[in-house]
Amino acid sequence: MTKSSFSSKTDYAGVAHELQRLQPTLFGAGAPGMPNGIGRQVVRTIVVRGAQEAAAAAKESDDAKLLDGRGRPNALPDAVILLIMAAFTSVVKARAVVVSAAMLQPIAIGIIISAGYGALLHEGRKRRGRFVCSLNFICSLMKQRGWRNVKPCGDARKLPSNWATLQWLMVLRLAYFVLVHTIPHDLVINADHTGIMFTLSKGKMWITAEMAKSKDKSVNNQGEKRQFTVLTTTSAAGKMLPHQVVVQGSTVAALPKFGKFSMSVTGRNTKAESKITVCFLLTAAVLAIANIASFCCTYNHWSDNITSKAYIQDIAVPYFKETITAMRAANPGSCKPFGEQICILIVDAWWGWYHIAPWIKQKYPWIRLVFVPAKCTPVAQPMDAGVIAKLKGIVRRMYNTWVISLVTAQLKIKAAENVNVPADVPTCKTNLFKWLSAAVDELNKDRAGILHCWDAPKLLRAWEGTVQAEAARRAEELFPNLSDGDFLPADFKEDEEAGFMGLPFIQPEGDDEWVDNVPWEEVPEEVPEEVPEEAAL
What we know:
- By secondary structure, the protein is α/β, with parallel strands linked by helices.
- The chain has a domain at 3-152 and 511-536.
- It has helices at residues 12-22, 24-27, 40-60, 78-93, 101-114, 118-124, 135-144, 163-181, 209-213, 305-330, 351-363, 377-380, 387-410, 425-443, 447-455, 465-473, 475-478, 533-536; strands spanning 148-149, 188-197, 206-207, 227-235, 243-248, 261-269, 272-282, 292-298, 343-348, 367-372.
- The strands form two sheets. Strands 6-7-8-5-4-2-9-10 form an eight-stranded mixed sheet, with helices on both faces. The protein has a two-stranded antiparallel ribbon with strand order 1-3.
- The longest helix has 26 residues, at 305-330.
């Protein structure tokens, strides 16, 4: 298919007939997205749209030889666009999972690379070329063909009117502990739960024009739990700790087969006493998931009081012990010995933490809990101030890179309409465990970024002398029952919204994020004159 095939005097019906005859797989009856084959109107729409956008781009450009067609479909040959839509149709019609635009974007990138047009990605990576494989481009392709999507979901939590006052009181409570017990930054940590979706979905999906016309929105296994919980942690010194993962199940069979597991903690959920929770440890280190230290199985993949005990025993305490040992080896006066040095764990006022507070006080009396004020988690703890968003962004990038490599490998042995992206729970769970572990190493290279998340809720001010002086003056106000060894504020109450699992990990941080997903070492820098014949078949 050459450029001369589409002139202003094109016989659209003739071109449609010729396309069906020459390429029945792509354009004939029954082709992906074309039950009756490509028609005159589709050909005309492509040509007219391309001419209009090329003219508009040329008008805006000082150099008519370099059309600034940012994200415009006509920058790609039409045969490549049809290959992309064939692959999209294959994935959507599989009905394996809710399909978002972010999930389809790496598939398009993989096809562009396989078709030999990866150089267009090079040109568009700085948004100066003829083409940008943005989410807008992906959505425009589907909208132009009558595809539909449903409404998204978001974070509906509301802050209390006095949230700034509550936030500052929390800073003062931390400052009081830091002052009285001389606690270094390394021994103050914040842990928070978040949900990780098995696939890139957020409550909306794309469906083909045919599915929309028949009002068919069905998805296989839609009722099953399509996410799990991750409890992730950072220190006030800017270090990421290992994760705890919580999946739905009751035995090790619910966990990926990375090695042998031994039981760590088990018990009954205090809010659902008929349900047993079991937490495990790997008996030997596994490099692929070296940064996951606790594996728990619950009846609904949510954390509870038992998973919280496992976190304290298997993640927090070992971290404090290792850190204190290292600090005292470098400087014996930097802190007290392990078991004597007071350490801080900042958590939200969620029932699972509150229910094990007496257990922590009895077994680990050197750990102090600092609770985030009710309904203030979005503004008062570092994990919600950006750490979790960074974590999910890394996982999203790793997913996209995996899909691009998967699609390019499949296109070497099969047609675009047979492209498949696995969405089964075992595959997704295994991949996500690996990516979450790798994300810890990446984030530990961004100490400044993590410290910024601690600075946003003003928690780092707890080490300032003036703030500590204020905390000392207001100690009785901050801890009304201090003489009884009770460090809960007078107005403490359980936060019913503390169980919010967070937004799915597919929220793009910007329209240029796709650039970080492309394996550039595999992408050629020259654009071919035409689509390679094998790519069009």
